Every structure is written in structure tokens, then in C-alpha cells.
Amino acid sequence: MRRFTTADRPIIFDVGANVGQTIQKFRKYFDNPEIHSFEPGIDTFAELKRNAEELPGVHLANCGLGAQREAKTFVENEFSDMSSFYEPGDAGWGNITHRREVQIDTIDHYCEQAGIDHIDILKSDTQGYDLEVLRGAENMLRAGKIKLVYLEIIFEDMYQGSPRFDEIYKFLVDHGMTLVSFYDMHYRQDRLSWTDVIFKVA
Length: 202
Fold this sequence. Notes:
Structural class: alpha/beta
Shape: globular
């Protein structure tokens, strides 16, 4: 990702931060990034806070991001990286530990409130909820203010109601993005199960 931005201090949105794994990766890629991390899980956020609260340039928010500002049920899994705003599907794994109502903000609203006029990298790993995250950034996307989108695409039925790849692809292309490539492909039973994908401004 380093080659896709020339920003000295890139503004990065880390949506679905979990316990801070991506924060560490971005801090290795970039010397002085400004990272806004969002994690709705209560226990997971507590660990994220322990891991990243003192890091310079890192801003933590215990909320989800979606298409509109609302309260929504977050389905927490014993494996925190399987937790989602969607119920697990047939291909999912792990046991549900809690269903909690959490607050959801939108990227457009957050940026307006925080005075953020662009995003160099939008990373979204929200276990099937990524299209809703993107819908909440529609104004920023239409204005060309999000330079790169890095997200997880799921091909199996891990979550009930999660969008297909073609829906996500169409949304991003219709909002001025172009597909760069797929990365880190994961297979189950000899079929592609999930992968990361990068889009950038066309």
C-alpha cells in the first residue's frame, strides 16, 4: 500500500480495528500516519485501547460505522474477528457470546465533525458489513476525497445477508474507484473463501 500514496502523513481510517493488528501494520508502512480506528465490541475495544491508546497519531472510537447514524445490535463471537452486525451464516464458526446494542456513525458525519477533508486509505474489515460502511462515505467518495479503499471480500455464506462481491464492486466503481488487485487469498475446501482487495481513485 505504501506505493499507492505519496502523503507524508497519511490519514487512515481503520474500520473494524479489532485489537489493533492493522494499526501496527500501518505504523510499519508509514513513518507518521494519522490513524482513526473504530471498533464496536466492548471487550475487544478494551484490548484495543490497551494496545494502542498511547501511540502517537492514533484516535480510537468505540463505535461501528455504517450507512446511517443509528443504534444497532452487534453480534459478538467468542472469536472477536468473527463478530459482526450480521448473524452468522452456515459457513461461519465460533459461538455467540453477546448481542449488544451499539452506536453506529457514518464516515461522512465523522469527517464533518472532526474536520477531516480527505482520507488517504480507508481500510474496512467488518465481517460482511463493508458495503454499509461504504454507503456511509458516499459524499466523500463522490467528491473523490477517499484515495484508496482496502477491504475484505467474503465469498462464502459466513454471515446472513452480507452483500456479494459484485454489489461492492459496482458501488465503488460507480463512485469513481477502480480495482487494483486481490491480496491474501484464503481457501476452504478448495474454494476461495475470502480475500483482501484494493480499489483506488480512477
